[in-house]
Design a protein that fits this description.
The structure holds two protein chains of two kinds. By secondary structure, chain A is an all-beta fold. Chain A is 0% helix and 50% strand. Classes of the chains: A mainly beta, B mainly beta.
Chain lengths: 115, 114
């Protein structure tokens, strides 16, 4: 597609529920990144995919967080048993080649609110 | 520990003013520094800088890198209300794990009043 597409744009759910966030990167981009942005905080790196594999998952905050990518394209970020501190904007970015000097291009994010 | 510090954290100016945003860094094995503009949603890419002293320019925006003093500045001349946004700086280094991760600053929130 023309840009990085994320869905849903907004998600409100009750504490304890599982949520799944989706990212569709720019066509041809092999690298995909997930970030979290909380109010007043900088961008927090979560995980990086090169193709379907994740060489760096060091930013996932707990084992409730997982992500996968299939077909070298769409990725899903899953948060199990959500907690209120998970409320944030989850941003996805893609680039031509990971871990290189290629700029990352971002989607509009999913605003997640845990009640 | 690698870090990127942006200043000021917030800034309010009037239309027509010129602003200078700062980004200083301490990052292992520096590779590049990137500037992004974030309005309501997605950060949009502005510039990537890899070499000292070479100015990158796009319209009223320009940026330059000083690799000796470890900082970059982003200048916006003749500001307009549409320049109101958070400006993010990120630096790519090469850490011990051979991982060229981007390290992000907290951003500068710029408000341009008419």
């Amino acid at each position: 597609g023309a840009g990085v597409s994320q869905s849903p744009s907004n998600k409100v759910t009750e504490k304890g529920k599982d949520v799944e966030l989706r990212c569709d990167p720019i066509s041809g981009h092999t690298a995909l990144y997930w970030y979290r942005q909380s109010l007043g905080q900088g961008l927090e790196f979560l995980i990086y995919f090169q193709g379907n594999s994740a060489p760096d998952k060091s930013g996932l905050p707990s084992d409730r967080f997982s992500a996968e990518r299939t077909g070298g394209s769409v990725s899903t970020l899953t948060i199990q048993r959500t907690q209120q501190e998970d409320s944030a904007v989850y941003l996805c970015a893609s680039s031509f080649v990971g871990n290189s000097n290629q700029p990352q291009h971002f989607g509009d994010g999913t605003r997640l609110s845990i009640l | 520990e690698d870090k990127v510090v942006q200043s000021p954290l917030s800034l309010v100016v009037h239309e027509g003013d010129t602003v200078t945003l700062n980004c200083s860094y301490e990052v292992t094995n520096f590779r590049s520094l990137l500037w992004y503009k974030q309005e309501k949603k997605a950060p949009t890419f502005l510039f990537m800088l890899t070499s000292s002293g070479i100015e990158k320019k796009s319209g009223r925006l320009s940026s330059i890198l000083d690799k000796k003093e470890l900082f970059s500045i982003l200048n916006i001349t003749a500001t307009q209300t549409g320049d109101s946004a958070i400006y993010l700086c990120a630096v790519r280094g090469l850490n011990a794990g051979n991982n060229r991760k981007l390290i992000w600053g907290l951003g500068t929130s710029l408000a341009v009043n008419p």
